[in-house]
Design goal:
It is a single chain. With about 190 residues, the protein is of the alpha/beta class. It contains 6 helices and 6 strands, in the order E-H-H-H-E-H-E-E-E-H-E-H. It folds into 2 domains: about 5-15 and about 65-185, HAD superfamily/HAD-like (Rossmann fold, 3-Layer(aba) Sandwich), CATH 3.40.50; about 15-55, no CATH class. It is about 30% helix and about 15% strand. Helix 4 (about 95-110) links the parallel strand 2 (about 80-85) and strand 3 (about 120). The two termini are about 15 Å apart.
């Protein structure tokens, strides 16, 4: 059976991090001005204060799966061995990462009840995982796969088609595209 590694954040769900950040700031920041991956970089000198308040919050409490994610993953699990691989470390408050690990595990366990929880992998170093297919929103996490699917997110949407072709990566925008790509071939 072929294997698929799927990222969690910005691929399976959007946690409530941006909502918590906006509540803290009292306004919606200009996300287009963000140069990198980490939304919290918009906080600048307020970052320490924010994370002292944020450290005990569960950004997955009440979070939802992305549209069609459940149904497509369920169908894929009948044909492929599915592994969810996600980072749980907050670089600003590493000592509180255990809270995030538990929250992520609980979310996956309850929302993707058809998956074996022993197939949940918590690691930043996804390049260590070798599998047939990887689905992630960060191109550097796709190495180690025969087929690489980059899930469109705010931080990768401007990546050129030339760069994707050079890296042998296919862009996907939603779970229906993943279904068409991975299930029509298998039938």
């Amino acid at each position: 059976m072929k294997t698929i590694m799927v990222d969690m954040d910005d691929v399976i769900t959007y946690g409530k991090f941006t909502q918590i950040l906006e509540d803290y700031l009292g306004y919606k920041p200009n996300y287009k001005s963000l140069k990198g991956y980490y939304v919290q970089d918009l906080l600048k000198e307020k970052k320490d204060d924010f994370f002292q308040k944020f450290k005990d919050m569960n950004m997955y409490d009440g979070a939802r799966l992305l549209p069609n994610c459940y149904d497509v993953l369920k169908k894929l699990s009948e044909v492929y061995e599915i592994y969810i691989c996600t980072d749980y470390i907050w670089r600003e408050i590493i000592e509180y990462a255990g809270n995030n690990l538990k929250n992520k595990y609980d979310f996956l366990y309850h929302k993707l009840d058809f998956l074996d929880p022993r197939n949940f992998i918590f690691s930043y170093h996804k390049s260590l995982i070798q599998c047939d297919i990887k689905i992630d929103d960060k191109i550097e996490h796709l190495s180690g796969a025969k087929q690489k699917l980059l899930f469109t997110a705010y931080h990768n949407k401007n990546m050129s088609e030339e760069k994707l072709k050079e890296e042998n990566v296919i862009r996907v925008n939603n779970w229906k595209e993943i279904e068409r790509l991975l299930l029509t071939k298998e039938k």
